[in-house]
Specification:
The chain has 508 residues and is α+β, with helices and mostly antiparallel strands. The chain has four domains: 98 residues, Winged helix-like DNA-binding domain superfamily/Winged helix DNA-binding domain (Arc Repressor Mutant, subunit A), CATH 1.10.10; 105 residues, 3-Layer(aba) Sandwich (Rossmann fold), CATH 3.40.50; 127 residues, no CATH class; 91 residues. It has 20 helices and twelve strands. A five-stranded antiparallel β-sheet has the order 4-3-2-1-8, with no helix packed on it. It has a four-stranded mixed β-sheet with strand order 9-10-11-12. Strand 3 and strand 4 form a beta hairpin. Helix 8 packs antiparallel against helix 9. The chain is globular, with a radius of gyration of 25 Å. The termini are far apart. 39% of the residues are buried.
Length: 508
């Protein structure tokens, strides 16, 4: 077999090694090669788990296939909501969707240029070509770091009409396949062509693309569509934000809110951005009670301001319910009403199950929460960010029940997260007993100091324990890290407000 190229990877014959465009080498195991060879021989065709299991030469469960697929996706950088290489056909198997490429590296863009009309009209040809050439370069510059770019993912169509001294143009951005319009812009160009005008046009088209991916567009949500926060995370990754999680979203939302501060969807997504900053924040300062209260004040105000305009949108209603529960301001009944209405009145099952489960867990019905998480997991693509999200929520609920071995088993199913993130999350699962730790956790504990430990305890309380209103369940969540880190660093490892809250059985 000759060398073959898919997206940013060139494979040698036999698929032993793949070379990235940045020079990095990707080495493949025997099992990964076996699946790759089968995939590329049958592109765009459904391969069942039985077929793939046979290629592995395994007598085991079809979950073996999922594990190898997950490893393969990680090596191919095939993450996020929009797949580049391997697509999941739920309940059936997998499909290889990457087209073999002959063109040189750099031709695989996120936004392509489609049908163009009116280029030959009198007075419009040369100017229109200048506009297109400049626009194409501007779009490429804005999407150069796209992590999941695939030729034809989005396409810009243009129409030109040349007047005596002005060039009229209309641009439509479509999603491919399907042809759904995700953005449109009308421009009038004068001679000479204004570079700033084209830069603003490119910004508008990229923003429309981001809003389509992050907000889901106007189409009704499907049973496997992700919650809003995961859509937003996927949009950030799509446009090249893997190195700075959520930074793309922040930039786009600041731009959208500057143009229209009262736009309901942008308001709610900004509230979600603020909450993501809490979840992903470092340094501990964001968890100072006074500072935290100010952020939660802003989130609460944003949700209530935009809620009347969004109650008919199930995905945004579910996101609002999630935020209302997260700020701990006594809005549990309203959050429950929003979540149940979205679930009953739409097909947004996957987006609904996690928040419905969290509401049950908050009220103390852990078994009902586990059932709902399991329903959600049935709709998750194996190894996806969505599956990791639901697994982590379920594991926290198992901790609340003091089912530590079961919680650790669920935690071990998390796939595709980096070693550093895995170690930090793993601190929540520290056993209270003074027994030997897994090597990665033991090594981490040896390296951290008292300030780091204090941040861990504070974070775990605000981002995990507070989501359980039953005092004994909140205490169970904290018991492992609190007891283990207190033995190592002393009682000052837990801030006074955390100890008081746990002792009183209420939120700080």
């Amino acid at each position: 077999m000759e060398r073959i190229r898919f997206h940013d990877l060139t494979f040698d014959d036999g698929f032993l090694v793949a070379q990235r465009d940045d020079g990095a080498a990707v080495r493949l195991t025997r099992q990964e090669r076996a699946l790759l060879l089968l995939f590329v021989e049958r592109p765009q065709r459904l391969l069942t788990r039985d077929q793939l299991l046979s290629a592995l030469g395994s007598e085991g469960s079809d979950r073996n296939v999922d594990f190898v697929i997950n490893r393969l996706r990680r090596k191919l950088n095939d993450h996020g909501r929009v797949r580049r290489f391997i697509s999941t056909q739920y309940g059936e198997g997998y499909v290889w969707i990457a087209p073999a490429q002959q063109e040189a590296a750099g031709q695989d863009g996120l936004i392509g240029v489609g049908a163009i009309r009116g280029l030959d009209q009198a007075g419009g040809g040369a100017e229109a070509k200048t506009v297109l050439r400049t626009l194409k370069a501007a779009l490429e510059a804005r999407t150069a770091k796209a992590e999941h770019a695939a030729a034809g993912r989005f396409v810009v169509e243009g129409s030109f009409h040349g007047g005596r001294d002005r060039l009229h143009a209309a641009f439509v951005l479509r999603a491919v396949p399907g042809g759904q319009i995700v953005g449109a812009d009308r421009e009038v160009f004068c001679d000479p062509i204004d570079q700033a005008q084209i830069a603003a046009l490119a910004d508008n088209l990229v923003t429309a693309l981001w809003r389509h991916v992050a907000g889901g567009g106007d189409a009704a949500p499907g049973p496997t569509d992700e919650p809003l926060q995961l859509r937003m995370h996927g949009a950030s990754i799509l446009l090249g934000g893997a190195g700075g999680v959520w930074q793309v979203n922040k930039d786009q939302l600041l731009r959208a809110r500057a143009l229209d501060p009262a736009e309901p969807r942008a308001m709610l997504m900004w509230a979600m951005q603020l909450f993501a900053n809490l979840v992903l924040g470092t340094g501990g300062e964001v968890f100072d009670p006074v500072r935290l209260a100010k952020v939660e004040d802003e989130i609460e105000a944003l949700v209530f301001a935009c809620l009347p305009a969004l109650v008919g949108d199930p995905v945004f209603s579910l996101a609002a319910a999630d935020l209302l529960l997260a700020v701990h301001r006594g809005h549990v009944a309203l959050a429950e009403e929003l979540a149940e209405a979205a679930f009953a009145g739409s097909t947004a099952f996957a987006a609904a199950f996690p928040i419905l489960a969290q509401l049950q867990a908050y009220r103390g019905d852990l078994e009902a929460a586990w059932r709902l998480y399991d329903e959600g997991l049935k709709l998750c693509e194996p190894g996806s960010e969505f599956e990791n999200y639901v697994l982590l929520l379920k594991a926290k609920t198992l901790l609340a029940a003091d089912a530590r071995s079961e919680a650790h088993a669920v935690f071990e199913r998390l796939g595709g997260i980096g070693p550093a993130a895995r170690r930090e999350i793993g601190l929540l699962f520290l056993p209270p007993e003074d027994r030997e730790l897994p090597p990665e956790l033991g090594a981490l504990l040896e390296r951290i100091g008292p300030e780091h430990a204090r941040r861990v305890v504070t974070y775990q309380y605000y981002m995990a324990a507070r989501f359980f209103s039953v005092p004994s369940q909140a205490a169970n969540v904290m018991r492992g890290p609190l007891e283990r880190l207190t033995r190592r660093f002393g009682p000052s490892v837990a801030p006074d407000e955390v100890r008081r809250a746990l002792a009183a059985g209420r939120g700080a």
